[in-house]
Amino acid sequence: MTKEKIYRGFFYAAGLLILALGITLNTKTGLGVSPIISVAFCVSDIWNLNFGNITLALYTLFIVVEMLLHVSHHTGSLKALLLKDILQLPLSLVFTRFLNIFGALIPDLQTAYAGSFAGSFAGRLFFLIIAIILTGIGAAMSLNMRIIPNPGDGIVQALSDCFGKSVGFTKNCFDLLCISVTIILGLALSGHLVGIGVGTVLAVIGVGRSIAVFNHFTFDKMNALAGI
């Protein structure tokens, strides 16, 4: 194995770990989660189910939709596209196990640290900003290595290719869809919003900015080390 491949694998794995940490910390602030995981968080919170397992189920649905889109609208090698889709399944299994591990290690800030800075609104907002930065860094590192996309990114790319729209526009539309579904589920099943809050808005804005800033300072250097 060449040095470049080692760097590439390291950056990819580290990116996924940082992404899982950022997503989990986001959920622990109690200020609203990022749109892409809001549906899974809402369902797991209302029915007291394992967040990692529900996220795995949601990612599996994303992968199935990706495969259907690729079968009906593929422009390149269908076999290569479907293989990349299928490989997202073991990736999702591993990634959601890390969600569970971090979820067990990080307590809910508002309840565990009530009466302290970490449990206050200002403290939780501080940790939310850290979570958003970590999410952006993790997403950038894993995506830049161009190995296997996270299903949340994979479905956006597949929809973008299918409808001929930019990835950025498609991402915004998909985020709005996830938020809408989460709002409907929360109101219908519990009578109030679950997982939607100021953190959701900040995640929509902040994750993209974090990716852009991180790539501005590291993109060329990381890609050179990874041989990309």
TrEMBL record:
Q: Which UniProt keywords apply?
A: Membrane, Transmembrane, Transmembrane helix
The lineage's top-level taxon is Bacteria
Per the UniProt record, which residue ranges are transmembrane?
9-26, 46-65, 86-106, 112-137, 196-214
**Stored Pfam families:** DUF6198 (PF19700)
Keyword check for Membrane, yes or no.
yes
**Matches recorded under PANTHER family:** INTEGRAL MEMBRANE PROTEIN, INTEGRAL MEMBRANE PROTEIN-RELATED
Task: Please give the name of this protein.
Answer: DUF6198 family protein
